[in-house]
Amino acid sequence: MVNCKEKNTETHNTVESERTHLPNKMAPALKKGCYRFDEKETTIIFEVTEIGKSVEGNLTYALSGKDKNTGMFKGLLKDDKLIGVYTFESEGAESSREVAFMVKDGRLIEGNGELTDGGTAFKDPDAINYSSKMPLAKTDCSP
Fold first, then answer.
1. What is the pTM of this model?
2. Residue 29, number of CB atoms within 10 A of its CB
3. How far is CA 95 from the centre of its chain?
4. Do 119 and 140 meet the contact criterion of CB atoms below 8 Å apart?
5. Phi, psi of 2 (to 5 degrees)
6. Which residues contact 13 (CB under 8 A, 6 or more apart)?
7. What CA–CA distance (Å, rounded) separates 84 from 74?
8. What is the Cα–Cα distance from 143 to 39, expressed in whole angstroms?
9. Contacts of 64 by beta carbon, 8 Å cutoff, 6+ apart
10. What digits encode the pLDDT tens for the residues 22-48?
11. What angle do CA 17, 20, 23 make, to 5 degrees?
């Protein structure tokens, strides 16, 4: 019986050792730095400057045929979803609206969804559709 117990203990220790060396799947997918989409006169740049209790950064939209918007983003990252308020200036006036991104494979994919009557916030954050045709890829922050 002593031999049998020793074998079980050895097996148990091996299993415990393997568990402690498993990769951490909860590592944050979002990193500080710049994410960019640039194609056909449309540019979106999101420079993530702070990741902590909140995520903060500079966000610029220069969409083809529309006025350029430049401002600040402040929001929360929950799992792979980043939702926050984008406060920006356009044509000399300050505005704000809610924006959402999904972090996937090192890219930011902007989400779209039904907005409140004022058009500045999502009615249901769980119903946001993340299928943007303009994914922002991680890049250098140089101009």
1. 0.77
2. 16
3. 22
4. no
5. -60, -45
6. none
7. 5
8. 15
9. 40, 41, 42
10. 444 454 589 999 999 999 899 999 999
11. 130
123 and 115 Cβ atoms separated by less than 8 Å: yes
List the structure tokens of 16: 């415990």
**Kind of pairing, strands 42-51 and 33-39?**
antiparallel
Amino acid at position 109, single letter: I
Distance CA 67, CA 65 (A): 7
Q: Rounded to 5 degrees, what are φ and ψ at 31?
A: -125, 155
Measured between alpha carbons, how far is 133 from 41 in angstroms, rounded to an integer? 14
Q: Are 109 and 131 in contact (CB under 8 A)?
A: yes
pLDDT value, residue 101: 96
As separate numbers, helices (DSSP H) first and strands (DSSP E) second, the chain gives 1, 8
Give CA–CA dist 31/28, Å, rounded: 7
